[in-house]
């Protein structure tokens, strides 16, 4: 199952769009180069490209393509684009519609036999805008489910009760299958002939580019090799049905730059197709809409952007186009320790505002020194931390009792009550009942709460894919509220939300750290002293190894002794 840990799409987009952007400032490419070099010293593995007009301002490969083989990351490495694939499916449908080979309001019943009555009237438009109320997925990305079985699962699935935007990979797979039926070509062959090759993209696709092992980036998590999407999800020689048309298309940064440039003109997509592709369809937030495979909107200074990201728990891909400036920022990562959507904001800040991007000093200890800290550490109240090594970092896996110390968590009846209240409103809401949530926020209009809270949950699915479940990770008593951190598991990632309770009243609902403190990557400052570093708004934890382990954060300390 995919477990990509990155920020919510909505707050991330706000972070990108808040500064008053202008033209790329003098010296920005050099500052971005230095920023990325600092991230590389913190074990970032991936690619970054910034283009403006016909110029490539920045193009860098960082870290390793394959750590076991010792292969450095080449700039032409092939990465999976994840859900950025969706805009290719959107483009294919828009092009075929402009040629009269399909209509965007065609129902499923026109293109598929034996569609059940509850799904027969779903339109292509609804598939492309995530408004078809279909499930997010009907199997894991890597499961090699036969075509007939895939359709059987889709047709027999229950439609979502909530109307409006509900992120669905299934919908995009159905749209890609319609592309095949309308064009008379396999999906990849159609995209290659009508989209990619006309744009000058020779290394983009599923299998037709015939990628070799040595050019595919290898994915890792916590230092453990996962491999490539090709070896994990293309076992039959084709992408699984669970990826088809919605994810898994591979590309290079130069190819994606060529696609950006092609979309600025009309040589690949005619004007009608482009209008259909980029038209704002479903509101995600003020100033932001979902189009056909794109998040489109207006920046704080009134200029347009088009955006999408993608990932699967090991790889992440970020594709940001500032169309009025003719600037594109593309970031790919092969390790969730530094997901691409969290790297991009620092780059854009340096490009357009010149703001400083702080990074901690790193003193490289010998590997043997780091290895000497590996083991299990325990403390009072059941606190425990497992310490391992990943590259230049120590990875501290803290259980809830240890992780919660930074929030001052204690065993308290108020915490128990807040945990139970959180579970009560979430269990009901995920079944479509928002009455308990409305009661908690003291809102008599349940429909109003359904729209707001349902939209909040839908935005999470927009960023991370279909929801798999949730769990309370940590709780803490503060002077006026009890904070409960809930970690949601999605098809393509994890996300954390903080609920703040004052008695039985829900006072706070906001995104918080995606890992909720479960794992800390700590980088060496000096002998036996390590610190965390986060790209966005996380707390800083200092780890000191001397007669055990001491964790310090926000004026609090937790001391643990070695247990092995």
Describe the structure.
With 564 residues, this protein is an alpha+beta fold. The protein contains 17 helices and 27 strands. The protein has an eight-stranded antiparallel β-sheet with strand order 3-2-15-14-13-12-11-10, sandwiched between helices. An eight-stranded antiparallel β-barrel has the order 16-17-18-23-24-25-26-27. Helix 3 packs parallel to helix 7. The longest helix is centred in the last third of the chain and has 19 residues. The chain is globular and about 75 Å long. The N terminus is likely disordered.
Tell me the layout of helices and strands.
Layout: E1 2-5, H1 9-17, H2 28-41, E2 46-52, E3 55-62, E4 64-66, E5 71-72, E6 79-80, H3 86-98, H4 108-111, H5 124-128, H6 147-156, H7 169-183, H8 187-196, E7 219-221, E8 224-227, H9 229-233, E9 250-251, H10 253-264, H11 271-278, E10 282-285, E11 288-290, E12 295-298, E13 304-311, E14 316-322, E15 327-333, H12 340-352, H13 367-371, E16 375-378, E17 384-390, E18 393-398, H14 400-403, H15 413-429, H16 435-440, H17 446-464, E19 467-477, E20 482-490, E21 492-502, E22 505-512, E23 519-526, E24 529-532, E25 542-545, E26 549-553, E27 556-562
Parallel strand pairs: 1-21
Antiparallel strand pairs: 2-3, 2-15, 4-5, 6-9, 7-8, 10-11, 11-12, 12-13, 13-14, 14-15, 16-17, 16-27, 17-18, 18-23, 19-20, 20-21, 21-22, 23-24, 24-25, 25-26, 26-27
Helix pairs in contact: 2-12, 3-7, 3-8, 3-11
